[in-house]
Amino acid sequence: MEIEAIRTAYRRYARIYDAVFGAILHPGRKLIIQALNLRPGDNILEVGVGTGLSLPLYPENVKVTGIDISGEMLAKARERVHQQNLAQAEAVLEMDAEDLKFPESTFDKVVAMYVVSVVSDLPTLVDEMRRVCKPGGEMFIVNHFRSRNGFIRALEGLFSPLAKLVGFHPNLALEDLLEQTGLDVVEIRSANLFDYWKVLRCRSTIKRSLPMDVTESIEHDSTVQGVSR
Ligand SMILES: C[S@@+](CC[C@H](N)C(=O)[O-])C[C@H]1O[C@@H](n2cnc3c(N)ncnc32)[C@H](O)[C@@H]1O
Fold it and tell me: What is the pTM of this model?
């Protein structure tokens, strides 16, 4: 999706976003924070932080910077930080995740919750996440990926032309994400309703050139074996 289409979609969503996508996607947010294995003082970047639903989930002894391209979504996030006095929320900034204004190796961990099927250029997003992550740091992604079930897959295909309207691509395949970005996934867990969403833990330092066989890891929902080189 083009950036203006994304801005338009989330300008419309901002007021109702929490009611529509708050509770239903919250188990995935909790699972990713758990997977982060946070240590006191960790410096975290969350791209596409939206209305900041995840911010209260981070412990107070870490520093979180949330960025988003939608001013309206961010206004809600700032309201939340203020109302709940969230000390962990170091900054909430309007910024394009595909063109981050941070120096390289700034963050210990970089997080994208329900964002990879929204952005306009996936490889650029992941390259930017990788660039600002410290060597040895990790990147975490939670998203819905194209279903392996034929019926659901057909439905996702039907919704696909409505991406601009719904504000995301319903049929992004995990295999395509990995092939386009070279993400080095070390763990996959399932989340949310019907385990329909996946939480990926990825190393930031390695860019894989070979597509990995994710079939088994998706089906068995486990640590991915033998993917590092
Ligand atoms: C589906 S919402 C997810 C919001 C939040 N992460 C959550 O857990 O609900 C996707 C968010 O990504 C943001 N976004 C899309 N493209 C972006 C980009 N290039 N840079 C920064 N944010 C972007 C949208 O504005 C929107 O707030």
Answer: 0.89
Q: Which of 31, 68, 96, 129 maximizes ligand 1 atoms within 8 Å of its Cβ, making it the mutation to test the pocket?
A: 68
What residue owns the CA closest to ligand 1's atom 16?
A: 119
For residue 38, how far is its CA from the centre of ligand 1 (angstroms)? 22
Distance CA 133, CA 30 (A): 21
Domains delineated in the chain: 3-220 (3.40.50.150)
For range 64-93, the mean pLDDT: 98
Q: What is the mean pLDDT of residues 107-132?
A: 95
